[in-house]
Write a structure and sequence with these properties.
The structure is a single chain. With 358 residues, the chain is of the alpha+beta class. Helices cover 21% and strands 26% of the residues. The strands form three sheets. Strands 6, 7, 8, 9, 10, 13, 14, 15 and 16 form a nine-stranded mixed β-sheet that branches. Helix 2 packs across helix 3 and helix 7 runs antiparallel to helix 8. The longest helix has 12 residues. The protein starts with a helix and ends with a helix.
């Protein structure tokens, strides 16, 4: 940066380079920049990083304030605070294979069906360049994955959320990819989920027909929209059925339940569809920090062993209680009818068992 540039931006930061190739920016907030928003100020002080990139870095733990990791990009600088931002080297746009165990439900020359564990991201993206399902598939399948999805998403036809467990089909060649894509576009896929929600919907069997769009002011969230014909709205239909109701004797209102195990069948497959739809009718998923109210259940008290156990299990449940149980479709090449079913994982079952005792 030349002297002229520095006169325009006296706070311009220059990095030092670590032995691992990381760029390290260090500064101390002064009286002149106190009150400035952290990510905004950094985006002005570092020409090479956008505010969006800086926000992701901060939320991912790349900055320390006074020696401790700090993850609030909207924080207002205070005079005397010391900051250290560590920017990792640029990641390769082409993901590499990683020896990550896969639970395979089915595999042939055209496709592979896997049971994705909760906590695993489907494909590499900002903040998750490694450890994804794609990295595991590349190691397992080699170069056989379809290239239609692009270098970062080879073979990926559909996704389930990071903290949702369950079945997902991946194409191993372009013909299978195109065929599966057509099935998903026509909603000709059988997808059944199990969810544990707060309370119990009334009626116990029903359909939620409510269009979804990006939430205003937060591009990471989805929301039900009143006008299904607005430009960014997507038609969304979920069918649900209560399988079990838990804690009726403890519920505040006679006949209600503290929680319920719900079967959800997707007619469409929109981002966060089940999570948003159930929250929309007043029954968010247990553990859903985005669309719900955290892990607690109103009215549940540790007044006996069952109540105390349920509260402990709830506090340990760190994700939305959602599992993709069933996946059925016509094989995109042979036409054979395929259907796969996998039970929920141990943490989901532990939650269900604890609630059954209420």
């Amino acid at each position: 940066m030349n002297a002229g540039d520095e006169s325009l931006n006296p706070d311009a930061l220059e990095p030092t380079l670590s032995p691992d190739g990381e760029e390290v920016y260090a500064f101390c907030a002064g009286s002149h920049n106190a009150g400035a928003r952290l990510d905004k100020w950094l985006s002005e002080a570092i020409d090479s990083l956008t505010r969006t990139r800086l926000k992701a870095l901060i939320e991912g733990g790349a900055i320390a304030r006074n020696g401790e990791i700090f993850t609030d990009p909207s924080w207002k600088l205070r005079e005397g605070e010391d900051y250290r931002l560590t920017v990792p080297p640029a990641a390769s746009p082409t993901p590499g294979g990683e020896d990550i165990p896969l639970e395979i439900a089915f595999e042939d020359d055209d496709l592979i069906v896997v049971n994705k564990p909760a906590g695993m991201v489907v494909h590499p993206a900002s903040g998750n360049w490694t450890g994804t399902l794609v990295n595991a598939l590349i190691h397992h399948c080699g170069n056989s994955l379809s290239g239609i999805g692009g270098v970062a998403r080879p073979g990926i036809v559909h996704r389930i959320d990071k903290d949702t467990s369950g079945l997902l089909v991946v194409a191993k060649n372009d013909r299978a990819h195109q065929g599966l894509g057509a099935l998903f576009a026509a909603h000709d896929i059988d997808r059944v989920y199990e969810a544990i929600a707060v309370g119990a919907p009334r009626p116990g069997v029903g359909t939620i027909d409510a269009a979804l769009a990006r939430a205003p002011g937060d591009r990471k969230k989805m929301a039900v929209v009143r006008d299904p014909y607005q430009d960014n709205a997507r038609h969304a239909i979920s069918h649900y059925k209560i399988l079990e109701a838990f804690g009726r004797s403890r519920a505040k209102l006679k006949g209600d339940a503290l929680a319920s195990l719900i079967e959800c069948k997707l007619e469409t497959g929109r981002t966060h569809q089940i999570r948003v739809h159930l929250s929309h009718i007043g029954h968010p998923l247990i553990g859903d920090q985005v669309y719900g109210r955290g892990p607690g259940l109103s009215g549940l008290k540790p007044d006996d062993d069952a109540g105390e156990k349920a509260i402990k299990v709830l506090k340990k449940f760190r994700r939305q209680a959602l599992h993709a149980r069933t996946l059925g479709f016509a094989h995109p090449v042979s036409g054979e009818a395929l259907s796969f079913d996998c039970p929920p994982p141990a943490d989901f079952e532990a939650l269900r068992e604890a609630l059954k005792e209420l």
